[in-house]
């Protein structure tokens, strides 16, 4: 069947069902919020250690921040005309739904904190004390701390024509104060703003000698609350509240006009802190007059106001986790199992015989770091090429690239400067790499370079050149590789490694990419290849043989892929999707998707690997990828999906990356056709099974709690 005919059949399926769009696709924003409810459920789970539950609460807070900074901000920007927010019914209804669900989520978040986790921590001897809960001795110490460490850094601003409302940094802690009487000049300045110093810790440990049992802490916001009156001599403080504003944090540069992307971004980074306001958080007891005043200052409607029962930035409670050293309140220590045989051999000799498949965090990312470091020091290595999306502020891998450049090797690094929230770190690395002599390029303007590729070109004993490559589903970030599940492949396969080099030539030379036999490259070939593979399974099913698709990813929202999956389901293909986050495919709809199941795994590690499996008449095609099935990944990014060709490695990916997740009845949530998720439970004679726990036991090296 031709491409056009198949595409027409997919459209005909949609038409024949007579379903409105809302019945075919789930709401993306609702799905994204639903993901955070699943994370919040981890914080509610009493079988999880207390500090880990608190960490999940902080993750929900961080996710909500990004949801407002990026997704809500984008929706608002798209519906703004001449600076005025468009008020058409569909948009207004959507925003009302988002606000309602986000308010409910944040309310429950603080209920879990105040009614469950903090009391439980207190019973374990970890006390987060408010002013009224502190002893006289503790209050005296806090007063001394305020006078010594905090007050000198505070600059209260009384509002008048000469002191207008100050610029408030994105997500920073601030206070609004209502004052009685007149100021020193006899004027009735009634409102003052106090910015909390960003250089001070948000969680402060009270000395052990002042605490009878366990450890005691207080928040910086509580310290300022208790002594805010000390800032206003001879003025009565009538009311006050902490507040925090969330702003649009997406960077924008005019890519048609900009001549130097790095310089343009450096300027934009400064402005990110003061983007359009999209949410205002205040204390629950903030007087309405003060909250209304703030809403007016930030040009926000009342729907954007969140009155919280606790610190306005719950994410900063992660500092409390760092202070506590009770191992029994954390997950048992775990470390990746190293391959001792691999460590004793030259990695290039190993790769000349076989590919190496790495499954992080169950196997160490150190192998990848060692691969680049060995290449940087090997006199036979002539060139190293690598893409960088996220790597962090400190990176042994980046230091190895700098070393290689200083040693005279040809080092080419494609640095993605637009990697959200990692822009500053990437700019700094780009600068250091260039000063070391590396060739640094910033990918393709308008398309984020999200592919995870590294290439080493080495002169072998016979005098010829050989290519060695690493391809991955995750980032070259040593920290996140300990908490994210990802796959990486080290290979010297002549064709695949040569095609990696072709991708680099495409990225640096901006040439039209060659037709690639093995790699699926976005935005040129990836989406058509995925659609073709799905349609091939549909053809096989129509011919009476088993069609089977299993795919694992972070998000599924691209409509062209969803339509192809629907059509394959209608043809009888059995489809299992493991989608951690947002999914707009509506499963289990008769005639549309009755052969499709969708599940989400939320556990100790962040599920991050992307795996595409197609049965293909027992050829068992397995692809690993950097790309989710989202329009931005398929059409607006440089992405690579790559095949795993060795049968033994295919089996490993299926047995480690897919099968356990389909069996999980501990951390799995199943998506229903109405967009709701239900947590899988042990039924009948089933035994409890957690995919991540299974992989930790079979692949990793669990350590004692003392380590």
What features would you highlight for this structure?
single chain, 707 residues, alpha+beta, ten-stranded mixed beta sheet, eight-stranded mixed beta sheet, 31 strands, 39% helix, disordered C terminus, metal-binding, Polyphosphate kinase, transferase, phosphoprotein, PPK_N_dom_sf
Characterize the structure shown:
With 707 residues, this protein is of the alpha+beta class. The strands form six sheets. Strands 17, 21, 22, 23, 24, 26, 27, 28, 29 and 30 form a ten-stranded mixed sheet that branches. Strands 13, 14, 15, 16, 18, 19, 20 and 25 form an eight-stranded mixed sheet that branches. Helix 1 packs across helix 18, helix 6 crosses helix 7 and helix 13 runs parallel beside helix 14. The termini are far apart. It comes from Undibacterium macrobrachii. Catalyzes the reversible transfer of the terminal phosphate of ATP to form a long-chain polyphosphate (polyP). Its EC number is 2.7.4.1. This is Polyphosphate kinase.
